[in-house]
Amino acid sequence: MTKPFSAACERNRDPILAQLRRFLPAQGRVLEIGSGTGQHAVYFGAHLQGLTWQTSDLPSNHPGIHAWLAEEAPPNVLPPVALDVRADAWPAGPWDAVFTANTCHIMAWDEVKAMLAGAARVLHPGGILCIYGPFNYGGEFTSESNAMFDMSLKAQGEHMGIRNFEDVCRVAESHGLALVEDCAMPAHNRLIAWKKT
Question: Does this entry carry the keyword Protein biosynthesis (predicted)?
């Protein structure tokens, strides 16, 4: 099949990689939630060779991920496993880190809460959760472009929308995930890191 392509992945991969180098261990196992096209996985895996990078997504996205892995994957990037964040069964941990990009605003809020609970459940003590994407603060958009993006999301589905940083932090903390850092990123995005206590 033709590989799926995300222009956003190409734009944001280097800024994200710079932050992942700060937060992820030099060696260990990383679970990526919602690997999407697979572009991030092959790029990050190639640059973080001490990490075993496990891709995951709903089965409908697996063919695209396989297409990227077939052409470009380094040996430390593993084929996708099926993961529905609402399910009790997650890929067998414990994991040293969990990473997800541009998923919180696509998922329903109940799914975001399930993802945070699941990540906390499968992380090693001291393990890191990194979430990349746009967030609101105090219920306010950080830019006009994010406000427009939120409108377009809600036009696709009422369950979608940019999440409030404070709400996400509150749920994360309720599952023993302590905020490490909230990093400003290009194009009004953030990369937020938590540590399992």
Answer: no
